[in-house]
Amino acid sequence: MPSFETMAEMGHEQVVFCHDKASGYRGIIAIHDTTLGPALGGTRFWHYATSEAAFIDALRLSRGMTYKNAVAGLNLGGGKAVIIGDNRTPHREMLFRAHGRFVDSLGGRYVTAEDVGTTVEDMDFVHMETTHVAGIGSRSGDPSSVTARGVFRAIQASAFQQWGGKELAGRTVAIQGLGNVGFHLARELHAAGARLVVTDIDTARIARAVEEFGATAVGLSEIYAARADIFAPCALGGIINDETLPQLQVEIVSGAANNQLLEDRHGDELEARGILYAPDYVANAGGVINVYSELTGWSRERSLRKADEIYETVLSVFKIAREQGIPTYQAADRVAEQRIQAVRGMIRTWPQYPNKES
Question: Which residues are known catalytic residues?
Answer without folding.
Answer: 80
